[in-house]
Amino acid sequence: MNKGTILFHRDFQFHNGQSGEELIIVLNTPKDKEPYLCCKTTSKQKFNIDREGCHSQQNIYVINPNFDWFKLKPWVQFHELYEFERDKFLQAHFKGILDVKGKLKENTIRSIVNCIKRSDDVSKYHLSLLR
Question: Which fold has domain 5-130?
Answer without folding.
Answer: SH3 type barrels. (2.30.30)
